[in-house]
Each structure stands twice: as structure tokens, then as C-alpha cells.
Design goal:
It is globular, with a radius of gyration of 19 Å. It folds into two domains: 65 residues, no CATH class; 139 residues, Protein Transport Mog1p, Chain A. 37% of the residues lie in helices and 31% in strands. α1 crosses α2. The protein starts with a helix and ends in a 9-residue tail after the last helix.
């Protein structure tokens, strides 16, 4: 997952707490995490004012707040790579890569495949295991907490379900680009996006990923 997703989580959690979205248990978890993250944020500011002294400790506290102290070893990215299809309708996979990142107690793994065809269109498929962030994954993805249904002359955006899992899709007709994200087992995020393609092509590409098999891994690596 890209770094901007961490920034999104840090800054959006307090807003989501204030909005009162979600069930009572989720709300309580958000409030506790929000308070801890706010405290860690203040310590980070103080550390910066003091020339960086104590910054590492503050970042560690931020990591603990974001993971709620949960210990989860993410699925090996090589296993996630094996779930990437070798081809999607009209396109072949041109590259596949994966990685595991671990910093300040946050462990995440992901795999990404790029697909190209004879035409100018292209697509990407990404599978991310949020690891010890899995307890907050649904909350970090704001679309998983609400119902969205928007439409204009140029495109649409909506939340829906995909094979029994919460999903979000959006498409721009003018640029012919769009994406669909699926939250699998409140732990994994599968994303298929494309440029110069139709939305049905993006969905067809997503259909090549074994969502059921991925859902079966949601308890893997969870430590007591």
C-alpha cells in the first residue's frame, strides 16, 4: 500500500470519530485509536521542536495506536503474487512485484500486477494484506463505512458488494478510467483499476482473482 494511505488513515480517523459513523463497537475502537493517535501526534510535534529528540519513540506510539497492539504476521507477498492472474481479458501480465513493509510496529504486505494489451489500454491489480492494521481496515477505507451512490454525465461512484464482500467502484466515461476496490474479510484490499478501458473490462479483470481463497486466509498469522 502506498504511503498516502497511511496519511489518509491518520488524518481521517478523527473525522470519522466525530461523524459518529459505524456501529457502537467500531465507534469505541475509533475513539480509543483516535485519542492515542492524537497524543502520539502531539509528542511528534514536540519532538520536532526539540530537534528530533524522542521522535522515534513518538512514531512507535503512533504505530501502536494504529494497530491497537494487535500482532499479525501478514501473508507472504509471494503467496499474494500467486493470486495475480497471468492474464485478463484482452491483456497479458507484463510485470508482477511484491513486498513486505514493516515500520514502527506496522506490518503490511502486497503484490501488484500490471497488464497491457495490443491497444493503448492498461490495467493494474493490487492485493494488500493490512496485517496488524486489519482491525481498522474497514474504518480506514471511508467508503466501507457508508453507502455511496453518485452519478453524473461523465461518470459514477458507488458502494456495492462483490461476491459477498463490501466494494467501491468509480468510473469516468470521458477518460475511460476507473477502479473497483474490494474489502475481503476486513483484512485484505483488492483493487483493479484501468485506463482507456470499459468498466466491464475492469470487473472482468477483477474476476480473475480468487476472492474466496483470499478470504480463507483472513485468520492466517494472527497471534494470541
Amino acid at each position: 500500500m502506498k504511503s498516502r494511505r497511511w496519511q489518509y488513515l491518520v488524518f481521517c480517523l478523527p473525522l470519522m470519530v466525530a461523524s459518529g459513523c459505524g456501529k457502537s463497537v467500531e465507534q469505541k475502537q475509533l475513539e480509543e485509536s483516535g485519542q492515542k493517535m492524537e497524543e502520539a501526534g502531539k509528542k511528534m510535534e514536540e519532538a520536532m521542536k526539540q530537534g528530533g529528540q524522542g521522535f522515534g519513540e513518538a512514531m512507535q506510539k503512533m504505530g501502536e495506536a494504529m494497530t491497537a497492539g494487535k500482532k499479525v504476521e501478514p501473508v507472504d507477498f509471494r503467496t499474494l503474487k500467486a493470486l495475480l492472474p497471468e492474464s485478463v481479458p484482452g491483456m497479458k501480465r507484463t510485470s508482477a512485484n511484491g513486498e513486505k513493509t514493516a515500520a514502527f510496529g506496522i506490518n503490511v504486505s502486497k503484490a501488484e500486477g500490471e497488464y497491457r494489451g495490443e491497444s493503448e489500454g492498461n490495467m493494474d491489480i493490487t492485493i494488500t494484506d493490512m496485517g496488524n492494521m486489519s482491525g481498522l481496515t474497514a474504518m480506514a477505507a471511508a467508503w466501507a463505512m457508508v453507502d455511496i451512490d453518485k452519478e453524473s454525465d461523465t461518470g459514477y461512484e458507488k458502494t456495492t458488494t462483490y461476491k459477498g464482500q463490501k466494494a467501491h467502484e468509480q468510473y469516468n466515461k470521458e477518460g475511460q478510467h476507473g477502479e473497483i476496490q474490494v474489502l475481503v474479510g476486513n483484512r485484505f484490499i483488492v483493487e483493479a483499476k484501468g485506463n482507456s478501458v470499459k468498466m466491464e473490462d475492469i470487473k472482468a479483470a477483477l474476476g480473475q482473482v480468487d476472492i474466496g481463497k483470499l478470504d480463507g486466509m483472513k485468520m492466517q498469522g494472527i497471534q494470541p
